[in-house]
Amino acid sequence: MNAPKDLNRPGVATRFLRDLRRDCETHPATNHLFLARCAVTPYTREDYATYAAQHFPLVAVFTRYLENLLLRGPDSESKHWLAKVLVDEYGEGSEGRDHADLYRGFMRAAGAQDPLEHPAVLVPEVADFLRTHLTLTARAPFLVGLGAVGPGHEWSIPHMFELLIEGLRLAGFKDDEIGYFTLHIAQDEDHGAWLEEAIARSAETAEGRDQIHRGAMLSLEARYRFWGGIQRVVGRWRSPAAHLHLPQRLRERCVGLLSRVREKAPLGLLDGLHYRHALTLHDVLALAPSLVVPVEYRSGAQKAQEAPRSPLAS
Predict the structure, then answer these.
(1) How far apart (Å, rounded) are the C-alpha atoms in residues 140 and 133?
(2) Per-residue pLDDT reduced to its tens digit, 187-235
(3) What per-residue confidence (pLDDT) applies to 154?
(4) In a 3-state reduction of DSSP, which class is residue 90?
(5) Total tally of structural domains belonging to the chain
(6) What is the pLDDT of residue 20?
(7) CB neighbour burial string for 260-297, b if at least 16 within 10 angstroms, e if fewer
(8) Are 173 and 276 within one domain?
(9) Residue 130 vs residue 295, higher pLDDT
(10) The whole model's pTM is what?
(11) Is residue 80 packed enough to be buried (19+ CB in 10 Å), middle (13-18) or exposed (0-12)?
(12) Relative to the CA of 219, which of 32, 107, 140, 147 has its CA 20 to 30 Å away?
């Protein structure tokens, strides 16, 4: 049975969208201390190369989130906004260069290694961000995923990137070197307008509004953790003892050992453990099919339908 629409409450969707935008723009993730520091701290190109190596996986995987949702959209109207954004992401508004390619241009200007030839070792918060959004868009209710990649991204990224751009210019980057960031601010204004149309239809019920809001907040909570990880890795790079990197090196050795053990273990036995400690973007994507949806991502209907299972059940 479909949830009742709030037809007797004119403007409820409008108020919901207004409040949700405010929640996204004022969230601690959107106003993280690292971003504030970027705008005033004279970081170097090398500092931004360290940041970019961790940020590139988010850029490279964003279309995967949209494709997940496009396949799961309940009707053509629900898919319309997703398809329009995907066209931009594939390069429609950037002379045929997709956004990952634009970002690689920025990385070259920063002096970073090519991320396709030399994949970065991901800090835990970056792997967590990727896992969270792969789960939200592939396994959580559709509107939770829409809230994550819609308001959770499109209404927060322009504000975050404005602060980053100030820092990039302070570091001496030219406008043609940071085109990925300036393009996003321009494109996300359009994406935000398309998004409001898509969400307005889905915000006619209390359940729909709850799922959209929950997805946006789960995304921003993961984003807050992401910026914390970036702040730590850039700070470590800038420290006088940066050449040591002992915690990260120890983690690399441990996960490398786990990878080798997993290859010899029975199929699937160690996938969950390896996934939680994945080192690279390739590791995260390779193990994505084994995702388990956390309870807080699920809809009320999903929770009600799930019967208790024995831990030994296959």
Answers:
(1) 10
(2) 767 777 777 777 888 888 999 999 999 999 999 999 999 999 999 999 8
(3) 86
(4) coil
(5) 2
(6) 95
(7) eebeeeeeeebeeebbeebbbbebbbebbeebeeeeeb
(8) no
(9) 130
(10) 0.80
(11) middle
(12) 107
Give the residue numbers spanning the domain of 49. 12-243
pLDDT band at 262 (very low <50, low <70, confident <90, very high): low
Residue whose pair of structure tokens reads 């339908």 in the numeric block: 305
CA angle in degrees (0–180, nearest 5) for 308-71-202: 80
Is the domain of 264 the same as that of 233? no
In DSSP notation, 1-41 reads -PPPP-TTSTTHHHHHHHHHHHHHHTSTTTT-HHHHHHHHS
CB 102 within 8 A of CB 180: yes
Give the mean pLDDT of 45-69: 95
d(CA 51, CA 7): 47
* Nearest 10 degrees: Cα torsion 264, 265, 267, 270: -120
Cα–Cα distance measured from residue 43 to residue 47, given in angstroms and rounded to the nearest whole number? 6
What six digits make up the tokens of 45?
Answer: 């190109």
| CATH number, domain with residue 194 | 1.20.910.10
- In this structure, how many other beta carbons lie within 10 angstroms of the beta carbon of residue 30? 22
Confidence of residue 1 (pLDDT cuts 50, 70, 90): very low
- The tokens describing 247, both together, are 């915690």
